[in-house]
Each structure stands twice: as C-alpha cells, then as structure tokens.
Write a structure and sequence with these properties.
By secondary structure, this protein is of the alpha+beta class. It has 7 helices and 10 strands. α1 packs parallel to α2 and α4 packs parallel to α5. The radius of gyration is 19 Å and the shape is globular. The chain starts with a helix and ends in a 16-residue tail after the last strand.
C-alpha cells in the first residue's frame, strides 16, 4: 500500500457514488488512531464507528475506511441471506481494497487470521488447560522498537499501569500465532488487546494488539472519570474487568502453567461475501473454523474483547 493511497481510495469512493464517512484522527505516541462513522457515536466504546490504527497515518485512514465499508458489505450479505453471513457477529470477516494487487488473496489471508485470533483467544480463556508463554513487555524483544516504546510511555502518562505482559497461547499451528497484551491499571483492573499474524511478523502483531489495549484503557479511564454507566454488553464486560471485579479470574488464568496446545481445526466457512453495492470498492471474505466458539458472546466473566 503506497504512502498516499488513502487519497486515491477516497477518490474511488466518490467516483462510485458512495458516501464518504466522517473521520476523526488523533495521535498517541507514534500511533495514529482514526475513527470512521456516518453518525457520531454516543457510546464510549463505539461499535458503530470503524477504527484504523497504524504508525503511518495514511495507512490508519485507509484501514478505517475499509472497515467502514466492510461492515456495510457484511450487513448486505445478511440481508441477502448469504451463507457466509449466517452468524450475525462479524468474526472472521475481512476486506481489502479491490483496486490493489492481490486483493482477494490479502482479504482471505486477513479473514483467516481474524478467525484464528478469535478461535485461539476464546479457546485459551475458556479452557484453563491450554498452555501459554508470558513475558513482561519491557523484558521482551518488542521493547527495542522505539515507536512502540514511545507509544506505551505516552499511554502510561494517561492511564498508569502496574504491569504490561505479552501472552502467547500455544497452538499446533507453526506458521501463525496470536499475541495478547494484558495491562493492569494502577489500583483497578485489567485491559487487554490482541492480534494474530505470521510468526515472522510479530512486531506488526504486537502493534495491533497494543492499539486495542490502548482503546480499551482509555475507555475504562473515561468511564471512571465521568461515572457513566456502560450501555452495551461489550462496555459492561470491558468495565467488569477494567474496574477490578475480574482480577482474580485474570490472575488465575495467567498463572496456570501448561504445555497443552490448541489443535486448530479445518475451516467450515471459507468464501467471498458478495456485495452488489460495495464489491467494486472492496473484496470481502469470511473464514470460520469448525466449532468456532463465540467470542464476545457468553458470560460477562469471559475476557474476550
């Protein structure tokens, strides 16, 4: 993706007669955070807004725009009874700009990794026998990344952390992995963020995981300062763990040592989500594994966010 691709992408959006969403852009440390939305969200953790985060602002803008239209393509698929959209939650759905080379291949790859992330994370949390490695972020090789370190330090100025660790659940997949960042807020609870990718690209994985943890940490801080009540299930779960109510659950799970690995099953869904309205702009794909566990669903005490 070229440095100035976002400008070309917006031009393509307009030429196709599609509405360009509103964008809000902010920066923390070296990371650029972008939100895309049609109507300004009222929730603190706004599920109605799409997000894009990257060290390169142009890439962050493009990611937010792609996710915005990805959601629309998925909603269209639900309306059209597309078999790939049978499960309402968008687990395993990913899009990529059609105007770029290998769009289908890259969308499918991102879709697989999104399904992999949610499959492994849910299995790891739900089954305490699944093993994992854990290391303090400051003691890991990732701390050598100056952009990451600058961003963590800027975040800690806003939301002080007692600890920040990197957890890697064990799987039988030697090519891909998921990294989960878990941060303990001073005097409160835990916030998390995770991502999956190729084992050869862990720096990119940890950056995406950090961006999620930051969004969650800032949301918990805002809830605390405004005394607002959580409105959605996502917000209730976030605040349950962020406020400290789930501390014993998190600490018990992290402290359970095992060498048992998650066996990754075959895919049950591996297909394009066809879109008449957005197919010229983005290619959208969905992957789901056999017996894919729910991610955000379930009991409040499941740390799947």
């Amino acid at each position: 993706m070229s440095k100035d691709f976002a400008v070309s992408f917006v031009k393509e959006i307009k030429e196709l007669g599609l509405e360009v969403p509103n964008l809000e852009i902010s920066r923390l440390g070296a990371l650029t955070f972008v939100s895309a939305f049609s109507n300004r969200p009222t929730e603190i953790m706004a599920n109605s807004a799409s997000a894009g985060v990257d060290f390169e602002p142009d890439t962050a803008i493009t990611k937010a725009l792609v996710e915005h239209y990805e959601r629309s393509a998925f909603a269209e698929g639900i309306k059209n009874n597309d078999s790939a959209c049978a499960r309402l939650h968008s687990d395993g759905v990913a899009s990529f700009p059609s105007m770029l080379l290998n769009a289908k291949q890259k969308a499918r790859q991102n879709s697989y990794l999104e399904a992999f992330e949610r499959y492994v994370w849910a299995r790891w949390w739900d089954d305490s026998n699944v093993g994992h490695s854990v290391i303090s972020l400051e003691e890991s090789k990732f701390w050598k990344n100056i952009n990451l370190r600058m961003t963590v330090e800027a975040f800690r100025d806003l939301v002080p952390l007692e600890t920040l660790v990197v957890i890697e659940p064990l799987t039988d997949n030697s090519e891909n992995c998921i990294l989960i960042l878990m941060g303990k807020i001073v005097g409160k609870g835990y916030v998390s963020g995770g991502a999956a990718g190729a084992v050869t690209n862990k720096n990119e994985i940890i950056t995406r995981g950090l961006s999620e943890l930051i969004r969650h940490g800032l949301a918990v801080d805002r809830f605390t300062k405004t005394n607002r009540k959580p409105e959605t299930f996502y917000e209730k779960r976030l605040l349950y763990f962020g406020s400290g109510q789930g501390n014993s659950l998190v600490e018990s799970r992290i402290g359970h040592i095992s060498d048992s690995k998650i066996e990754i099953p075959e895919l049950e869904i591996d297909q394009e989500i066809k879109s008449e309205n957005f197919g010229s702009l983005i290619y959208t794909h969905r992957c789901l594994f056999k017996d894919q566990p729910p991610f955000v669903d379930g009991e409040l005490e499941r740390l799947c966010l």
